[in-house]
Amino acid sequence: MRALLLVNPKATSTNERVRDVLIRALESEVDLHVEETAYRGHARSLASGAHAEGYGAVIVLGGDGTINEAVNGLLTAEPDRPARERPLFAAIPGGSANVFVRALGLPNDPVEATGAVLEALAAGRRRTIGLGQAIWREESAGVSRTVSRHFTFCAGLGFDAEVVRAVEGIRSTGQRALPTRYVATTVRRFFVTDRRHPALRLTRPGHPDVDGIFLAIVSNTAPWTYAGSIPINPTPLASFETGLDLLGLKRMSLPAVLGLARQIIGPRESLPKGEQLVQLHDVTEFTLAASRPVAFQLDGDYLGEYESVTFRAVPDALQVVV
């Protein structure tokens, strides 16, 4: 099998020596071509030509952002092609959280994950999973256009995206996105965010609107993210085989936030409880509209501030090696 390996050389949990070992291991089993990503969006561009260039698999060594780019490259190049007719997709963890890799049940160690991927390729093991899709409007140079992007595990509007934006700012200075840094940033952002004027409204066909939402977490699988080895699980029923799940928060008081945190940190099987919560499970489509531009993130990648985003479930979208 011909395989395209996309390597993020800036991935935080690998170094050049480890990457060389992994590449040699993959080369021993597949006809491998290696490309290093050089800029934001590069993995998407490289993956988009994989099918036309005859690759049977696209393998990513990187974090969730690089994985998201490559997945979008595969899907947007030939949007009408069934998953079984696209190249297989495999992910090897190279980032700080590696949510997608762990959600697939693969090891969080890049060496162990490479071994698992090679075993799965040899055995022909694959799994077809659903993805999420976000659709919004962007303006550039006075021109408005519709933009869509798939996500593998989560999206968010409001407070959680503000935290992602702040952490990206820290990372731009060369600091690593450690779990303790996320926690500290979350605490700082809580005391400076607008906790009195909720901006978000949930709308979906056939149901009454829900106003007064401060933050909204949209999940395609569970857990939503990790703090080191500890899962953060606001939507424990979400999975790659169902539609999208949502958790919204209608109060941003300290007791409300602490009460939610106690319910979502660690392994969970039951939904969080509270009158301040808005919850959806296995939904095909809904829209989050805002009374003012609010922060928006997708798979942990900050995308800007927007006033309306529509979310859709995309079943059977991608064949992954597991």
Automatic annotation (TrEMBL):
Residues 1-138 form the DAGKc domain. It comes from Thermobispora bispora (strain ATCC 19993 / DSM 43833 / CBS 139.67 / JCM 10125 / KCTC 9307 / NBRC 14880 / R51). The keyword NADP does not apply. InterPro entries: ATP-NAD_kinase_N (IPR017438), Diacylglycerol_kinase_cat_dom (IPR001206), Lipid_Phosphate_FormReg (IPR050187), NAD/diacylglycerol_kinase_sf (IPR016064). The lineage of its organism: Bacteria, Bacillati, Actinomycetota, Actinomycetes, Streptosporangiales. PANTHER family: LIPID KINASE YEGS (PTHR12358:SF106), SPHINGOSINE KINASE (PTHR12358). GO terms for molecular function: ATP-dependent diacylglycerol kinase activity. GO terms for cellular component: plasma membrane. Its cofactor is Mg(2+). The keyword Transferase applies. This is Diacylglycerol kinase catalytic region. It comes from the Bacteria. Belongs to the diacylglycerol/lipid kinase family. Keywords: Kinase, Transferase.
